[in-house]
Amino acid sequence: MKDKMLKRALLRVAVVLLIAFGAGWHYGWVRPATWFNQQQVNTIVTQQCDDLVAGCRFKLENHEYLLKSKAPLSTKAPVELVLSGKADEVHAEWAMSGMDMGSNRYALRRNDAQQWLASTILPICSQKRLDWQLTLDIDRNRVVLLTRSQQ
Q1: Which of 3, 29, 65, 90 has its C-alpha lying 20 to 30 A from 144's C-alpha?
Q2: How many structural domains is the chain composed of?
Q3: Are residues 10 and 56 in the same domain?
Q4: What is the pTM of this model?
Q5: Which residues make Cβ contacts (< 8 Å) with residue 123, sequence separation at least 6?
Q6: Are residues 120 and 75 both part of a single domain?
Q7: 84-127 pLDDT, tens per residue?
Q8: Same domain, yes or no, for 61 and 28?
Q9: Does the keyword Transmembrane belong to this entry (predicted)?
């Protein structure tokens, strides 16, 4: 009788753990693909960029890039990013200094040979801060742009 109860309890625990893992994978909290292959970053550039609508220029490995937002940054509407420059793969992620904003990594899609697009959303900040870090992973290089949003 005790063996049967123990087996049922273990089965319930296994089911709960499996559901939690599945939810974590679905919502991006668990990323098994990155557990064993940490990417080596070649270059890290940090740059102040107060107005993404006007654009932000930077240089990586002798290539020029221009990042623009189609509208001022706001937590009330999606942030449409347009990156011009040579790349094979581009990802973007919004964060704040000293805050855990959860996973919000976006893959930019290629529009043409030299242009990348993404519709992103700023995470909600309960402290009403307006300072943001946009991290761009361009191939094996990382660019951190420091910017601000409107209220």
Answers
A1: 29
A2: 2
A3: no
A4: 0.70
A5: 75, 94, 95, 96, 101, 102, 104
A6: yes
A7: 999 999 999 999 888 877 778 999 999 887 899 999 998 877 77
A8: no
A9: yes
